[in-house]
What we know:
The structure is a single chain. By secondary structure, the protein is α/β, with parallel strands linked by helices. The chain folds into five domains: 4-196, Rossmann fold (3-Layer(aba) Sandwich), CATH 3.40.50; 221-340, Rossmann fold, CATH 3.40.50; 343-413 and 496-523, Arc Repressor Mutant, subunit A (Orthogonal Bundle); 416-490; 569-630, Orthogonal Bundle (Arc Repressor Mutant, subunit A), CATH 1.10.10. Helix content is 45%, strand content 15%. The chain contains 28 helices and 21 strands. The protein has a seven-stranded parallel beta sheet, sandwiched between helices. The chain has a six-stranded parallel beta sheet with strand order 8-13-12-9-11-10, with helices on both faces. Mean pLDDT is 87; it is low at 410-414.
Amino acid sequence: MGEPKKILQEIWGHQDFKGSQLKVINGLLENTDVLALMPTGGGKSLCYQVPALSREGICIVVSPLLALIQNQVDVLKKKGIKAMAITGGISYEELDQRLDNCVYGNYKFLYLSPERLQQPIVQERLTQMNVSIIAIDEAHCISQWGHDFRPAYLHCHVLRQLAPKAPFIALTATATERVVKDILENLEMKQPLIARDSFTRKNLAFKVRQLQDKRYALYNALKTTKESAIVYVGTRKKTQELSTFLEQKKIAADFFHGGLTQDEKKTKLNRWLMGTTQVMVATNAFGMGIDKSNVQAVVHFRIPDSLENYFQEAGRAGRDGRKAEVLLLTNEEDKEQAKRQYLGMFPDLKFLKNLYKNLNNHFQIAYGEGSGSSFDFNFDAFCTHYKLNPHLAHNGLKLLDQHAVIALSESFRKRSTVKFLTGKENLFHYLENNPSMNKIVQSLLRTYGGLFDFETKIDVDLIEKKVATPANKVFESLEKLESDGIIMCNLHQTDLQITFLVPREDEKTLNRFSTKIEDLLERKKELFQAMLAYSENTSMCRSTFILKYFGEDPQEDCGICDICMENLAPTGGSMQSIKNKLLEQTKKRPYSSRELASLLNIEEGQLLPALKELLEDELLTLTHTNAYKFN
């Protein structure tokens, strides 16, 4: 309890609020609903944490990611503030106990996933709590027109009935006008305070490089980076491949993805936070909500599916206010692959109707029946039998789930995975002593590459056919190999459980939302086309391009992106002409940067980026006396 500024100074150690923070805080303290649009790193969490500590009661925070929730709770606990997280993987008894603690234990914060919010026990117990504020973090997840739509977010408005006196605050760092409209409507905000800080990040130098050898460019970009960096890739396998590549180049790198155990995630994250690991190669969830200020570089090794995702991930750099680099490495092959991945794998209405019909036939559901029926479901076997593209089918099932035609269990997308733990020589000796394992081991090694290096998804049905052995025997063999220390495996005999929520009516079932499906496909195309346009832009300041996309009208360019640097130079010329001059001059003998600036009449702001690129491309080297030498 206390004045906001005093709380900020005593608990967080900041002397004053920034941007719209105080305006938002005062709005909540006056019981006004608030929509806060602030850039990544703009201090959004303080907007509800400070007023929650100024009032009696508990603040309910809905947040999409376990890592984000856990990080926030850990930070609050270290400050001596009672905070609770209710996430997956806890028993009913423990859930019951934690909720009781929130009712009676003077807790100030309860963090929930949107899925948890839908549980009857959670809703019932929330009505017993003295709720001070309701915070919906990453609120763009509410809108199907946003970049990260999450259906469970559509039910957040139930908190209006569960805690009718508490003001709402919705927070996001990426929202177009259409997404803002969706947030306001879904959360039933009647006369909200809309606080909109510019998304400008003046210290971020946005750059795009079009080139074939992206690995080489990645190494060159990171070898001159002194502090922490994040490299975003598209697949779990790529995280391991690139981190291994960087380690071989003597860069302290590690990998991070959703398939790691909680202990592995915690260990890897802590090593990166402490600086033991310099570069984290990760899939896109990494970094959300993590308080690390000295990220000097964010590199996208693959083109993202939207400018929203790109800008949110970019915003994890330079939170300490120092200059940081945001680099996108791409080429024509990369763009074509992204088009296939993001657009080619989104089902149209014809595919969706066929998928729904096949589902009903698969489980022998008669017309007009099926509502409330649940089945275990082997996704791979289903796709094989009906000759369906697995990626399209996967996205189609998610759409049917989003529109309440079916409900998928949380285990969806789990696959059986295998990684060999022993070397080939030891494996040979093991098979000599265990000949019954020969057939399955050989089948695995002939079917899948990288089993000695990576945790690899396997199709148990395919192995079953190759070794002519029933599935239960294949599982028994894999379990024995694991118990003998030969492999590490994660085995799932069914991919998911599926529940039909409405009676079967074939095309009529889907016709009620067919227009939405077509609109979504168009929206997907729009999002990706905007990202492509950004990557191919060669004339507009990159920061200006991004801000215009989000509805701002910046009055000046950033001055530090690759395009601004190219266009900047009245004296030295374009970036390419500066590099040409530097190469010609250094052919004579090595020069210091000061000597080169004087000889060529080039300002330091233009000279240093050109020298950096020439070093990265290994056209120049730096001598022991810090002189630049032609290679």
